[in-house]
């Protein structure tokens, strides 16, 4: 694995273009576009204020830079560096900004979620969408870019509006049976919309594209409910992670639970492989502590780490969350399916340094990766079943069904990594 | 009756001293003076004896003697007698009194005894009763303790549940509070913003500033929003949904078809297994018919088109028949199991089923055989691998190219050599023989000529002159010894003397002499 030299980036804004040719990074108010293979700087743009959010358009021709404080969005073109576009939301403020799937419209959510403004870069036309809901995930585009689902709240009731992204025509508008809608997500085949309630009530609703309620799922009452939801890429499974430290898998034919994965503190499963990261600090003799060595020696503090396989039973470190605080650090917060839907990686918040990998064919635990510090993020390789994760130190950890490896990234400081994982072919 | 026995004793003791017919007043249980009877103890005849007897008795009782044997007077001391009687009466009275006392004592003690017995039985009953009560109480106590334990468990569970619910309530409350605070903060921000907006005169309007319009991503012109487009969108949406359902339905159909195939296969296998077990079963006559029916059904089924199986009834029939077969197979296997176990336990002489032990032995033997074969194959394989994987060396290869035939080759080479030699020898011999034959023929010819000339000469010289000097004949050597003898005979029929040695210079040399001359060396033909 080759590593490039270190680039400065602020705010963890570093994105590869969807076609994989360019890499855009933000430094304060500057946008730097490089070629991915040579890492040569191709373009350099300057924005009016510190960039809060940056995103590529779907056709990799445009980049939007949003400055939330100033309420400005600037759009840059790669083909024509002279082309400029500035969207000023005025006094109404800006909370979030995103591209539409066709790469020609920008959706700005104003402050206090008053409305969503749809700006068209083709016609300079503006559309408004009223009463968007301020929740965990209120807007979702279907994978083929045809439809957009928006969560709304009027008169203390939740609604979902489905728009056609072509001309922003409102296709369907229906009320949902949620108490307080927390998020919605299209299935990858674009035919089913999963809608879930806030953590005070465990409820997951499944709506068809034309607004019919297909099914409701509720595992239990009263205790804190759904924490995270994700679809498998084949649209066959819906994985629901909840505050009771369990993941429940629903199937797309009957919308009933077919499996339940528990994250238990003592692993007795003999079929699962438990990888434990073991750090080795290079021993420092007292003679060596000369000034010379210390100045050279970030190598002193760079620990080597490797994975050891632990035989069962294995005790996983558990951190009990503070019971009095809201949104406790307990429950399955992160779920990710591999691209072939064969594996599911999960993270349980009170076992923050452990990543669990489940086999979807056998519906059982396949591997457990125990790191020395809390796992910040993980992502699957879009092509093959390979999981990359990072824990905030200078190492990158890779898991595949064949084994586990930790790679030292040559950086000087311990930077926090973002999930800016690029898997180059 | 104790008194009578007392009386009896007294009387019996007197009987000891003297056997005297005594009519006992044993019937009386009352004091003697009541039943006064004439005693026939003393008569006029035996006064003396009676007297002495009585005095003995009295003295034995400790009283002064009644009669003294002094003088022959038969007169008794009346005073002494009266005293004695009086003493006796006193004694008797005393005895009676003690008897009374004793009777009273005895009555008392018997009543005491009765009383005690009564009380003891009463106490025993009470004890029984109290024991039963005790066990009953213990039982109750045990039950109550159990109840207490279960209630304690219930209490614990309830407490836990209450705790859990309290936790839930607490978490929900904290969540609500959090949300409330968040909303309040947002509300405050809104208020401030509103104030600011009201105060602020300059309202920054929303605006977009684009250098030039860019084309649409797909290059098409954008359309006005009309009813047609709306309808088109609806149509497209339904198309998407329908195609998705279509795909799913197709997949499910395929899956169904496969599963049905599997079920059919299973059913066939089960039927075949069960029907093959027919001859071993003695008591399953009815099964034959069923299996026949199944087979017929099977044949019938497979003749139908698969489309038929999509019908609900056909599906049910299939599943039912599979269930039936499976049940039969299960019962059959269970029966076999039982039979096997029975053999192990009972050692019955049922020769049809194989006993488990022999079966196991057979299995072990087969396993061993398999293992041996495997080992053999393994070693073979290893050797083959070694053979194939040995490093390729030119010299060695050439050396080893025909290594297996080396010995034979050497042998053949040697044999070839010898054969060659022999051939050469044969050639030489043949050549020599042909030469010899040629020479022989020449010599024969010469000889014939000589003979002819000699004969001619002889004929011409046939004369009575015996010892005429005959011209020397040319000594022709003849290889043939045999010819010498007939020559002699032919030559001299009339001449008995043998001048032949002189006349006939034909002395055939011996074969041995001839060989060296002919350069024929007798050799050992076979040197091998």
Structure description:
- The complex is a heterodimer of chains A (425) and B (528).
- By secondary structure, chain A is mainly beta.
- Chain A contains two helices and 36 strands.
- In chain A, the strands form nine sheets. In chain A, strands 27-26-32-31-30-29 form a six-stranded mixed sheet, with no helix packed on it. In chain A, strands 1-2-3-4 form a four-stranded antiparallel sheet, with no helix packed on it. Chain A has a four-stranded antiparallel sheet with strand order 5-6-7-8, with no helix packed on it.
- In chain A, β7 and β8 form a beta hairpin.
- The longest helix of chain A has 6 residues.
- Chain B is mainly alpha-helical.
- Chain B is flat.
- The C terminus of chain B is likely disordered.
- β8 of chain A pairs antiparallel with β1 of chain B, so a sheet runs across the interface.
- Chain A: InterPro entries: Centrosome-WD_assoc (IPR052778), WD40/YVTN_repeat-like_dom_sf (IPR015943), WD40_repeat_dom_sf (IPR036322), WD40_rpt (IPR001680).
- Chain A: This is WD repeat containing, antisense to TP73.
- Chain A: It holds the Pfam family WD40.
Poorly predicted runs of chain B: 11-31, 282-286, 467-506, 521-528
Number of helices of chain A: 2
Greatest chain-chain contact:
A-B, 53 and 49 residues
**Mean pLDDT across every amino acid position of chain A:** 85
Quaternary state of the chains: heterodimer
Let me know the number of strands of chain B.
1
Major sheet size, sense and barrel closure of chain B: none
* Helix and strand composition category of chain B: mainly alpha
Main location (chain B): other
Coiled coil (chain B): 141-207
Organism (chain B): Sander lucioperca (Pike-perch)
Subcellular location (chain B): Cell junction, Adherens junction; Cytoplasm, Cytoskeleton, Microtubule organizing center, Centrosome, Centriolar satellite
């Amino acid at each position: 694995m080759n590593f490039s030299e270190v680039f400065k980036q602020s705010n963890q804004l570093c994105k590869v273009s969807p076609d994989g040719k360019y890499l855009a990074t933000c430094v304060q108010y500057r946008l730097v576009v490089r070629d991915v293979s040579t890492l040569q700087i191709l373009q350099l743009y300057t924005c009016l204020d510190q960039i809060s959010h940056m995103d590529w358009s779907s056709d990799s021709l445009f980049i939007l830079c949003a400055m939330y404080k100033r309420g400005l969005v600037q759009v840059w073109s790669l083909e024509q560096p002279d082309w400029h576009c500035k969207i000023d939301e005025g006094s109404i403020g800006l909370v979030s900004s995103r591209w539409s799937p066709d790469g020609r419209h920008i959706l700005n959510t104003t402050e206090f979620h008053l409305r969503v403004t749809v700006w068209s870069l083709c016609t300079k036309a503006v559309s408004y969408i009223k009463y968007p809901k301020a929740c965990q995930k209120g807007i979702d585009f279907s994978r083929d870019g045809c439809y957009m689902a928006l969560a709304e709240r009027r008169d203390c009731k939740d609604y979902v509006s489905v728009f056609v992204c072509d001309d922003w025509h409102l296709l369907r508008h229906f009320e949902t049976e949620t108490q307080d809608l927390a998020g919605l997500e299209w299935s990858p085949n674009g035919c089913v919309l999963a809608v879930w309630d806030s953590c005070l009530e465990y409820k997951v609703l499944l709506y068809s594209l034309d607004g019919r309620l297909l099914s409701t799922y509720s595992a239990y009452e009263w205790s804190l409910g759904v924490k995270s939801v994700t679809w498998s890429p084949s649209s066959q499974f819906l994985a629901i992670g909840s505050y009771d430290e369990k993941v429940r898998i629903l199937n797309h034919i009957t919308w009933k639970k077919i499996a339940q994965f528990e994250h238990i503190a003592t692993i007795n499963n003999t079929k699962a492989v438990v990888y434990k990261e073991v750090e080795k600090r290079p021993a420092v003799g007292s003679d060596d502590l000369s000034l010379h060595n210390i100045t050279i020696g970030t190598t002193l503090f760079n620990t080597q780490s490797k994975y050891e396989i632990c035989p069962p039973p294995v005790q996983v470190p558990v951190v009990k969350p503070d019971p009095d605080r809201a949104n406790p650090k307990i429950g399955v917060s992160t779920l990710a399916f591999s691209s072939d839907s064969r594996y599911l990686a999960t993270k349980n918040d009170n076992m923050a340094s452990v990543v669990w990998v489940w086999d979807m064919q056998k519906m059982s635990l396949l591997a457990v990766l125990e790191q020395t510090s809390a796992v910040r993020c993980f992502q699957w390789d879009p092509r093959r079943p390979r999981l990359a994760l990072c824990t905030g130190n200078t190492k990158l950890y890779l898991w595949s069904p064949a084994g586990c490896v930790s790679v030292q990234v040559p950086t000087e400081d311990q930077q926090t990594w973002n999930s800016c994982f690029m898997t180059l072919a | 009756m104790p008194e009578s026995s007392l009386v009896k004793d007294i009387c019996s003791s007197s009987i000891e001293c003297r056997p005297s017919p005594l009519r006992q007043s044993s019937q009386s249980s009352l004091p003697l003076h009541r039943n006064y009877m004439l005693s026939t103890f003393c008569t006029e005849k035996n006064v003396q004896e009676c007297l002495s007897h009585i005095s003995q008795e009295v003295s034995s009782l400790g009283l002064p003697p009644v009669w003294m044997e002094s003088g022959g007077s038969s007169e008794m001391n009346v005073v002494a007698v009266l005293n004695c009687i009086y003493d006796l009466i006193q004694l008797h009275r005393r005895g009676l009194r003690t008897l009374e006392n004793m009777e009273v004592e005895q009555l008392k003690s018997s009543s005491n005894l009765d009383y005690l017995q009564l009380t003891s039985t009463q106490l025993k009953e009470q004890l029984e009763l109290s024991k039963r009560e005790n066990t009953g109480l213990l039982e109750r106590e045990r039950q109550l303790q159990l109840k207490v334990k279960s209630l304690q468990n219930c209490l614990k569970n309830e407490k836990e549940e209450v705790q859990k619910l309290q936790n839930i309530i607490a978490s929900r409350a904290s969540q609500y509070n959090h949300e409330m605070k968040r909303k309040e903060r947002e509300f405050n921000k809104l208020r401030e913003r509103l104030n600011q907006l009201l105060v602020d005169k300059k309202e920054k309007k929303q605006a977009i500033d684009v250098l030039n319009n860019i084309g649409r991503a797909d290059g098409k012109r954008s359309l006005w929003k009309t009813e047609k487009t709306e309808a088109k969108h609806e149509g497209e949406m339904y198309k998407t949904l329908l195609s998705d359902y279509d795909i799913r339905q197709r997949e499910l159909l395929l899956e169904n078809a496969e599963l049905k195939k599997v079920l059919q296969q299973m059913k066939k296998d089960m039927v075949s297994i069960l029907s093959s077990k027919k001859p071993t079963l003695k008591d399953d006559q009815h099964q034959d018919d069923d299996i026949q029916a199944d087979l017929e059904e099977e044949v019938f089924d497979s003749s139908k088109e698969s489309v038929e199986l999509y019908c609900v009834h056909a599906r049910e029939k299939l599943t039912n028949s599979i269930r039936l077969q499976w049940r039969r197979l299960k019962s059959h296997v269970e029966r076999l199991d039982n039979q096997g176990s029975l053999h192990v336990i009972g050692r019955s002489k049922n020769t049809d089923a194989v006993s488990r032990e022999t079966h196991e032995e057979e299995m072990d033997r087969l396993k061993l055989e398999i293992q041996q074969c495997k080992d053999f194959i393994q070693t073979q394989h290893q050797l083959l691998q070694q053979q194939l994987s040995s490093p390729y060396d030119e010299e060695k290869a050439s050396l080893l190219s025909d290594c297996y035939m080396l010995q034979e080759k050497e042998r053949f080479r040697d044999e070839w050599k010898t054969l060659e030699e022999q051939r050469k020898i044969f050639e030489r011999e043949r050549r020599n023989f042909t030469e010899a034959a040629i020479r022989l023929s020449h010599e024969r010819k010469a000889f014939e000529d000589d003979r002819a000339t000699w004969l001619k000469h002889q004929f011409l010289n046939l004369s009575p002159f015996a010892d005429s000097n005959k011209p020397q004949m040319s000594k022709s050597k003849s290889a043939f010894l045999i010819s010498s003898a007939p020559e002699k005979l032919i030559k001299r029929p009339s001449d008995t003397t043998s001048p032949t040695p002189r006349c006939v210079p034909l002395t055939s040399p011996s074969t041995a002499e001839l060989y060296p001359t002919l350069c024929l060396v007798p050799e050992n033909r076979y040197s091998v």
